[in-house]
Amino acid sequence: MNSTRRRITKAVVPVAGLGTRFLPATKATPKEMLPVVDKPAIQYVVEEAVTAGMSDILMVTGRNKRPLEDHFDRNYELEETLARKGDQDKLARVCAPTELATAVHYVRQGDPKGLGHAVLCAAPHVGSEPFAVLLGDDLIDPRDPLLTRMAEVQARYGGSVVALMEVDPGQIHLYGCAAVRPAGDGDTVRVTDLVEKPAPGEAPSNYAVIGRYVLDPEIFEVLRRTEPGRGGEIQLTDALRELAVRADAGPVHGVVFSGRRYDTGDRLGFLQATVRLACEREDLGPEFRSWLGEFVSRDVLVSVG
Question: Distance between CA atoms of 247 and 158, rounded to whole angstroms?
Answer without folding.
Answer: 14
